[in-house]
Design goal:
The complex is a heterodimer.
Chain A lengths: L1 H34 L4 H11 L2 H13 L3 H11 L1 H13 L6 H9 L3 H8 L7 H25 L5 H7 L2 H16 L1 H19 L8 H19 L8
Helix pairs in contact in A: 1-2, 1-3, 1-8, 2-8, 3-4, 4-12, 5-7, 10-11, 11-12
Chain B lengths: L1 H24 L8 H19 L2 H4 L4 H16 L4 H18 L3
The chains are: A mainly alpha, B mainly alpha.
C-alpha cells in the first residue's frame, strides 16, 4: 500500500510540467472549438473523453464539415494509431500478472507525453505512477479547454491570433527533435509537409476534406517509408 | 447539430480508447513484423507534419506571422526545448510580428 502511494506521488510530481503544457495547448483548442461551432460543454467533454491533441484538433474540421461518422472514425484511427504502438510498448513494461482493471485504466492515459514519461521509468511500471501523471495531466487538459472556450470571446483578437499557433508549436516540438538524429525522419517530415501543401493547392485534391487528406497521406507516406526504410531493432 | 456533436464525440472517444486499450489487454507478445513496426513508428511523424503545414500559415491573422512561428518554433524544437517552451514562444512570435506589421 505504502509503495502504491509513493508511486502515485512520484507520478503527481512528474505530471506537473505535462499538466502545464496541456493547459496552454488545450486553451487554444478551446478557442478553436468555439470557432468551429462546438459548444463549451461539448469541447470540455471531448477533451475529458479523448485526451488527444492531434485527434481532437482534426475532429473540429470534421465536425465543422458535417462529415460522415465513418470519416471521423477512420481519421481518429489513423491519427491515433501511434497510441497502438505505445500501448504495445507499455504492455511490456507492466508486470505479467497485472489485473485487467489496471490495464483498462492505464489505457485511458496513453498520450505521447504520459507514455513518454511512463516508459522511461526504471524496471517494471507501477500503474499508480501513471495514475499520478493522469491526475495532473487530465485536469490540465480539460480545464484549459474550458478556459479557452469561455474566455475566447473576451480576449483581444491579436492575442487569439497568437494562441492559434500553440498547438502547432507543440507538434513541432514532438516531431523535430528525433529528426536531428535521423536523416530519414527529417526527409519524411519534409516530404509530408510538401505533399500536404500540394493537396491544399492542386485542384481536385484541394476538395478532399482535411480528415481524409491526413488519412491518405499518412497511409501512403508511412507505408512507403516502412517499405523503403524498415526501422532497425531498437535497444530494447 | 448539437446532438450530432455528441455522437461525433462518442465515435471518436470509442475509437481512440479501443486503440489504446486493445494492445494493452490483448497483445501480450511483442509485435515482430518489421514492416508493421516501421509503419507504426513513422505514423506520428507523417500525421503531425501533414497537420502542421500548410495549416500553420492560415492559423493566424497573417501568413507572415504564421511563417515566423513555424521558423522560430522549428529552431527551438531542433534545440530540444520543451513542448511548453516551443509552444509559448511560437505564440509570442506571432504576437510580436502582428504588433509590428499592420495586419
Amino acid at each position: 500500500m505504502n509503495q502504491r502511494i509513493r508511486q502515485f506521488r512520484y507520478g503527481l510530481k512528474d505530471g506537473v510540467p505535462i499538466g502545464l503544457g496541456y493547459l496552454a495547448v488545450s486553451f487554444s483548442f478551446g478557442i478553436m472549438a468555439r470557432k468551429a461551432g462546438v459548444s463549451t460543454l461539448a469541447a470540455v467533454i471531448m477533451s475529458l473523453t479523448n485526451l488527444t491533441s492531434a485527434g481532437q484538433f482534426a475532429a473540429l474540421g470534421i465536425i465543422e464539415a458535417g462529415a460522415p461518422f465513418v470519416e471521423m472514425a477512420a481519421a481518429q484511427l489513423i491519427i491515433n494509431l501511434r497510441y497502438c504502438l505505445m500501448s504495445c510498448s507499455l504492455s511490456q513494461k507492466l508486470e505479467k500478472g497485472m489485473p485487467f482493471l489496471h490495464r483498462f485504466m492505464v489505457s485511458y492515459g496513453v498520450t505521447d507525453e504520459i507514455f513518454g514519461v511512463s516508459v522511461c521509468r526504471e524496471g517494471s511500471l507501477s500503474p499508480f505512477y501513471t495514475y499520478g501523471l493522469i491526475c495532473v495531466a487530465v485536469p490540465g487538459w480539460t480545464f484549459g479547454t474550458f478556459l479557452g472556450a469561455v474566455s475566447g470571446d473576451l480576449l483581444p483578437a491579436r492575442l487569439l491570433s497568437a494562441l492559434g499557433v500553440a498547438l502547432y508549436g507543440m507538434f513541432l516540438a514532438v516531431v523535430i527533435p528525433p529528426a536531428r538524429e535521423s536523416r530519414i525522419l527529417a526527409g519524411i517530415i519534409l516530404v509530408s509537409m510538401g505533399a500536404s501543401f500540394v493537396f491544399s493547392v492542386v485542384p481536385l485534391l484541394k476538395d478532399i476534406s482535411s480528415g481524409f487528406r491526413i488519412i491518405i497521406l499518412t497511409v501512403l507516406i508511412a507505408g512507403v517509408a516502412a517499405s523503403l526504410f524498415p526501422v532497425k531493432e531498437e535497444k530494447g | 447539430m448539437e446532438r450530432n456533436v455528441y455522437l461525433y464525440i462518442l465515435v471518436m472517444a470509442g475509437v481512440t480508447y479501443l486503440i489504446r486499450m486493445l494492445p494493452l489487454t490483448l497483445i501480450r507478445k511483442e509485435i515482430k513484423n518489421p514492416w508493421v513496426r516501421s509503419f507504426l513508428y513513422y505514423v506520428p511523424y507523417v500525421t503531425l507534419s501533414v497537420m502542421i503545414f500548410p495549416a500553420i500559415l492560415t492559423a493566424t491573422a497573417s501568413i507572415w506571422s504564421g511563417a515566423a512561428a513555424l521558423v522560430v518554433g522549428s529552431i527551438l524544437a531542433y534545440c530540444k526545448k520543451s513542448l511548453f517552451q516551443v509552444s509559448i514562444v511560437s505564440c509570442a512570435v506571432v504576437f510580436c510580428m502582428e504588433w509590428i506589421l499592420p495586419v
